[in-house]
């Protein structure tokens, strides 16, 4: 009887997913699932928020806007937008010890910026790590192993913007800070069913299997909306309108953008979003919760 009940639940979940897939394939629109996921490598992730950084995130610097912005230090600026980074044990913003300079600013508030490639500004914003390595650079694209922290209009006397793919500048400020969980294939540090290399690709936290803060800590690959539970409306519906999308502007997937691409949904790290490779990973998982 127990086996029959288990089979019945699996069949029901499969049929439900089939209905969702049919909707996804037939609709040309997509649900709004928020800003594009940042490119992340090793376990470092950085995003721009219009509110305070949360959980283990560190505030690197502030922006007056997400595009064409002036910059400031966390303690010297009253700007609303914050560059928040996370994902590495022992991550901090000290300009001492094992660190590298992310940007140099002309002052603590309402400042122009210089990348690590140029300029002579003396107000630094930094990323440091208690053990491991830290390296920041500026390039047209972030190399494998580096996360995009911000974009800049040039190497000096520059304005800054975020890395979300809309109104970005062509100079990318890229950092690699390692000291926590690595991105090794075949290793599942947090035992959530997804190996570290896939979590670094998405990116989710390879060292954590459940959001510490609902809505802002991306830790469990199946939990797209970061609510600590798996549901059709909250997670599977994120695939509506995205089935068949391929590749994206990423160091992992250098091919041309195709369709409504969102790397966060590519659970099998194949550079395309599919029913069999991605959506079917939810079969038997609907209703699960993490703590």
Outline:
With 291 residues, this protein is an alpha+beta fold. It is 11% helix and 21% strand. Residues 2-16 and 19-42 have low confidence and may be disordered.
What does this entry look like structurally?
The protein has 291 residues and is an alpha+beta fold. It has 2 domains: 128 residues, no CATH class; 134 residues, no CATH class. The protein is 11% helix and 21% strand. It contains 2 helices and 12 strands, in the order H-E-E-E-E-E-E-E-E-E-E-E-E-H. The strands form 3 sheets. The chain has a 4-stranded antiparallel sheet, with no helix packed on it. The longest helix is centred in the N-terminal third of the chain and has 25 residues. The protein is globular, with a radius of gyration of 20 Å. It starts with a helix and ends in a 90-residue tail after the last helix. The relative contact order is 0.16. The N terminus is likely disordered.
Features:
291 residues; alpha+beta; 2 domains; 4-stranded antiparallel sheet; 21% strand; disordered N terminus
Write the layout of secondary structure elements.
Elements: H1 2-26, E1 45-49, E2 58-63, E3 71-72, E4 81-86, E5 91-92, E6 99-105, E7 113-114, E8 123-129, E9 133-139, E10 147-152, E11 160-161, E12 171-178, H2 196-201
Antiparallel strand pairs: 1-4, 2-3, 2-4, 5-8, 6-7, 6-8, 9-12, 10-11, 10-12
- What is the distance, rounded to the nearest whole angstrom, between the alpha carbons of the first and last residues? 30 Å
Could you give the order of strands across the largest sheet? 1-4-2-3
Strand content: 15-25%
Radius of gyration: 20 Å
Largest sheet at a glance? Answer: 4 strands, antiparallel
Please, what is the average pLDDT?
84
Overall structural domain count = 2
Net shape: globular
Low-confidence blocks of residues? 2-16, 19-42
Number of helices: 2
How many beta strands in the DSSP annotation?
Answer: 12
In helices, the fraction of residues equals 10-25%
- Helical/strand content category: alpha+beta
Order of helices and strands: HEEEEEEEEEEEEH
């Amino acid at each position: 009887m127990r086996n029959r009940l288990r089979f019945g639940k699996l069949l029901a979940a499969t049929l439900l997913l089939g209905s969702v897939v049919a909707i996804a394939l037939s609709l040309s629109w997509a649900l709004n699932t928020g800003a594009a996921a940042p490119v992340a490598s090793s376990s470092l992730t950085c995003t721009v928020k219009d509110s305070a950084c949360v959980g283990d995130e560190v505030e690197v610097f502030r922006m007056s806007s997400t595009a064409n912005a002036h910059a400031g230090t966390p303690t010297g600026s009253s700007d609303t937008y914050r560059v928040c980074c996370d994902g590495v044990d022992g991550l901090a913003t000290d300009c001492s010890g094992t660190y590298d300079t992310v940007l140099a600013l002309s002052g603590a508030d309402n400042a122009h910026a210089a990348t690590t490639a140029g300029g002579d500004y003396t107000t630094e914003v930094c990323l440091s790590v208690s053990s491991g390595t830290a390296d920041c650079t500026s390039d047209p694209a972030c190399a494998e192993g580096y996360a995009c922290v911000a974009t800049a209009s040039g190497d000096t006397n520059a304005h800054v913007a975020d890395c979300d793919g809309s109104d970005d500048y062509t100079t990318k400020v890229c950092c690699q800070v390692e000291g926590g969980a690595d991105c090794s294939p075949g290793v599942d540090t947090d035992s959530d069913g997804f190996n570290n290399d896939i979590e670094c690709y998405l990116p989710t936290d390879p060292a954590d299997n459940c959001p510490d803060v609902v809505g802002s800590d991306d830790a469990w690959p199946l939990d797209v909306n970061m609510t600590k539970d798996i549901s059709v409306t909250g997670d599977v519906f994120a695939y509506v309108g995205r089935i068949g999308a391929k590749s994206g502007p990423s160091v992992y997937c250098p091919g041309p953008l195709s369709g409504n691409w969102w790397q966060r949904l590519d659970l099998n790290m194949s550079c395309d979003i599919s029913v069999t490779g991605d959506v079917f990973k939810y079969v038997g998982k609907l209703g699960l919760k993490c703590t």
